[in-house]
Amino acid sequence: MSDPNAVFQNAYYVGNNFNAILYGVELVLYFASVWLILQARGRTSKRSDKLFLFFSTGLLLMITIYVAVQAVFGQEMWIVNANYPGGSGQYLADNAAVWYQTLGSAASVVLNLMSDGLLIYRTYVVWSDWRVAIFPSILYLGTAALGILTCYTSGVPNSDFFLGKAADIALSYSSVVIGLNFTCSMLICGRILWVAKRMEATLGREVSKTYTGAASLIVESMLPYTCFGIAYVVTLGINSPLSIFFLSVYVMFTCVSPQMIILRVLMGRGWTREAATSGAIPRFTHPSSAGASTTRITYGTDGTAINLRSFTKADTSSPDLEMDTKI
């Protein structure tokens, strides 16, 4: 399949199918998050729960717009206008700047801004130091400006997101976004691995991996979001027709990855500022009660990082782990 248009059309089709699959994943994550928020209402509900609810709903709304636009454009190109003069390639060239495609591009830019804002905040939470967020915040301002410019240039009549000036600006925008993603992901991964060594020395691998294991690394750093973003920028930079596929998956993880973080925090497994403050060797206290003990582990003087409840001598292989979810 050497025809670039044929490769592009197939990549677009496969990308739309992945959109549908990952949209289903997003719906599951969203409703699971809403259920946890509603369960906590009236008992342990926090102001952050309302913020999570509004943020998650905003993510779902933006990704719904994007998925619908991609599906509608594919239907128009392959079915409604199947006999378009010049074929699907010519239809794409003539209609790439149609108004609803511009709407989809705007939705993806808003998604990026929301997800990157959360990623910068999580970087600050994991490090518990505002200075690490300075450089990513500067990049964030650059992505906002370039994102608006990308929407404008790709929405001008007869323009094409993948060709000409619009493609150059889109490449610049995407490169800055991926630079921000990569910086934050590496900062978060590095911090988690550093804390993991300290925790394992005291608690052992089985206990510490709940907060410093592979799942924590992947979710907290939004690693899928960053990896597919890098793949998209590379393919866009070399003008590969496969770029549309990686763009589709990348945009979907722009929504799925932050929703995974929100769900993890609501489940009590997300990193907090207290948990990340590990400047001192963990201290242990053992208040006793009838038949059970509670171990409190704190770092520095900021408060409790982890509570190990029902940690009895009879069953030490599966302690019940809880982490404060205030962020």
Automatic annotation (TrEMBL):
Record keywords: Membrane, Transmembrane, Transmembrane helix
Keyword Transmembrane: yes
Membrane-spanning parts: 20-39, 51-73, 98-121, 133-155, 175-196, 217-238, 244-263
Keyword Transmembrane belongs to the record: yes
Name of the protein described by the UniProt record: Uncharacterized protein
